[in-house]
């Protein structure tokens, strides 16, 4: 089964604005959902200041919150 | 710090913008820009209107610049750039941001059955309760908020609600003033920062020295960063101290020193002090490394003051060592703690400024430094496991017990420890009264110890785990085995308060 690649920026700017919370939100998903996601840390998505930033299927999503990220993943799965 | 909420983001954006402008010599002329870059026309909106949000922002900028609230921000920026720091307390209520939470302390809920017994009415000493609309009703004009009704209701239908800031304060130092805004009683406050974390409106903040530190660096002074042992994993679980060191040097700091080394000095000195004074001169001794705890003892249990160890804190020990080697050094402590800013003010001989990890990260962002893109250079620590373990609750206690096993194997240590100022206060009172059989007490204001501090960036559970791994990987096991620390002590120096 092909996993959905979710790249979360762990750069200092995004980290300061809460990228760790996004990672935590994915790590606490139920196993059947979590297994469909390939979570990757990334160092910069060139949108600093609008973080935390996430890239899913080539699209950079800014000002992410855990809720919006889970919704975005739901939409893309 | 548990979750990065919208209000936390806002606070951090202000700090990053202040840093960016100061670094690019634009703060004096462009501080007003922050009002439009952090709060934009198209939202998101958290308050009634953009004007209110910008008014709140001005309070935040003043606090970030360490200037009195209400100062015109251009003037505040000019003062900060001149290195000025306003007098007064570190933790401040931002009057514009405080929502003046209109909370009625006791509330009758839907669980009220309008029973026959009416214990609530019977128990109320002010006759403030009557039945209206088939349930009990509290007349707010007569109620004195004694709580008897809540205790008497067999359904538990009357609940007590308090403001988040009030509830967070173990020392009851924060209350609603006449205008319903939060007010801090600084005769009781230990400036631990618990209220800052608790307020969902971000209406309590602590003064920062960001601009003053940047100015010292720009003036080409030798600015030393001394980092608290709680730094493990603060900038992300994968960011190592070697990367942080490179980033600090890139930023313009002269050197990095670990406060864990000072903690080794403290372990040795505190153990010797304990062996020399307990039980001969005093029945027990308590730790002195947590500034909020020491402040609590000072303000709430002054009769216990003589039982606090005279050994200086690891921060002061580290700073004194640096100043002895370089008298022109500007020493900046970087840690998880707000109360350290107060301790810094009290030790102007060796501490120039104090920053939190949160503030340092915002400064890196302002400088465009991304820690994850820096190659790690292996950093060799000069501290022992003991020194590093100071960051976690129980660490100081264990270090002293272990060290006593080597330096004074004949003494008996009956240890006890507590986390949280309320718990510390209670335990210390019990020890003083003799209700609790202990002769060595470790007090930590923050739950979890320093890693649970208000200036941290990572979750206390993650940091605690990472710290444990880090401690176990450290080569030198015990403080007495740290020859460099032993040598520094032998060279002489002031490791005790006068």
Automatic annotation (TrEMBL), chain A:
Pfam families, A to Z: 2Fe-2S_thioredx
Classification via SUPFAM superfamilies: Thioredoxin-like
InterPro entries per the UniProt record, alphabetical: Thioredoxin-like_sf (IPR036249)
Top-level taxon of the source organism: Bacteria
UniProt name for this protein: NADH dehydrogenase
Species this chain originates from: Anaerosporomusa subterranea
Automatic annotation (TrEMBL), chain B:
4Fe-4S ferredoxin-type domain location: 134-164, 180-209
Keyword Iron-sulfur in record: yes
Keyword annotations of the record: Iron, Iron-sulfur, Metal-binding
Pfam families: Fe_hyd_lg_C (PF02906), Fer4 (PF00037)
Gene Ontology MF terms: iron-sulfur cluster binding; metal ion binding
Protein name (database record): Hydrogenase expression protein HupE
UniProt organism field: Anaerosporomusa subterranea
Source species taxonomy: Bacteria, Bacillati, Bacillota, Negativicutes, Acetonemataceae
